[in-house]
């Protein structure tokens, strides 16, 4: 008899491996993003923008803000060890980020089923909300953590 584990059980059982895979995400590492929290369907990350991440107006480029939001979206949606890939995102830029201030993004799962999951993401600077994102993933049938047979 095979015991089927649910998403919560897989998250707990393989937490260290899942966190390491998500922490080592190449593009996030390249930009200097740090995964600070990971829970089932949730994630938080930080970034301190430098001069290379600014636009021509001297504020943080929208692509950097989007990348930070997208990173926590990916971490939260893959937090169960099951491969999840982005399908849609909708970003609202509310305020400007500045060089040297810590940007924090957090993602929260709103709903999931076998194939799809929906998330709300916020990006904040040290004083205020600077962007929001709503996003959806497609949940594949494959895991990136080893499942016991």
TrEMBL record:
Pfam families: 4HBT. The keyword Protein transport does not apply. It comes from the Bacteria. Residues 57-128 form the Thioesterase domain. Coiled coil: none annotated. The keyword Flavoprotein does not apply. SUPFAM superfamilies: Thioesterase/thiol ester dehydrase-isomerase. InterPro entries: Acyl-CoA_thioesterase_PaaI, HotDog_dom_sf, PAAI_dom, Thioestr_dom. This is Hotdog fold thioesterase. Keywords: Hydrolase. One of its GO terms (molecular function) is acyl-CoA hydrolase activity. It comes from Peribacillus butanolivorans.
């Amino acid at each position: 008899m095979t015991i089927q584990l649910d998403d919560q059980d897989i998250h707990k059982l393989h937490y260290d491996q899942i966190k390491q895979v998500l922490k080592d995400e190449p593009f996030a590492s390249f930009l200097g993003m740090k995964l600070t929290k990971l829970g089932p369907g949730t994630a938080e990350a930080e970034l301190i923008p430098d001069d290379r991440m600014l636009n021509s107006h001297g504020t943080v480029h929208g692509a950097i803000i989007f990348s930070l939001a997208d990173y926590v979206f990916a971490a939260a949606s893959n937090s169960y060890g099951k491969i999840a890939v982005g399908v849609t995102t909708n970003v609202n830029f509310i305020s400007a980020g500045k060089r040297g201030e810590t940007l924090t993004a957090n993602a929260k799962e709103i709903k999931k089923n076998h194939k799809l999951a929906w998330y709300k993401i916020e990006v904040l600077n040290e004083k205020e909300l600077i962007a929001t994102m709503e996003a959806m993933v497609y949940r594949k049938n494959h895991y990136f953590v080893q499942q016991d047979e």
